[in-house]
Amino acid sequence: MVTKLNNYNKKRKPQNYWIRDEIENIIKENNIDRSKFHEVSKYSYEKILHKFYYTFFEYEKNTGYTEPQKIELSYAWLNFRKELEISETIQVRYDNINIDVIKSLVPDYSDEKICFVIVAEGWVYEGEISEILKIFPCEIGIITDCYIISKKFDWVVVNCEDGECVYRVELIRKNKF
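The chain above was modelled as a monomer; its predicted structure follows.
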């Protein structure tokens, strides 16, 4: 539900802040414990974004439409590294998302598993999977793309808004013997 105040704020703020405001509203409306889901410290943003980006993406392909060294997450899912293992793609209906589908993509799923969440607009969050899944089905319609990433950066669950699908991407560890 968008209030008049939210409409006023949307007119004054850059568009990439709108998603942050919506997530904050959901946290408040659903009394989500901020110790279980919260925005990451601004001092950690750059480190987390760089680790994610340079671990999973062929970043050289991204420089054609962005300035060098700028991390561009919109449509980044088009540039995953070729050597990564990609699960089967699961179609989702955003008007009736099945949380169990996302849970099935998380290796060794547990409600208490702590992950990062990065939205294409650049905001970085951290929290328990159970809390993450309370936030993002509510707002899935306005998120362009989002990524749920293990804290070890060895897998990522991708929400591709354009394709109305989710899937998992994992690093492949090959023995060098």
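Strands lie at 37-39, 85-86, 90-91, 114-119, 124-128, 145-150, 155-160, 165-170.
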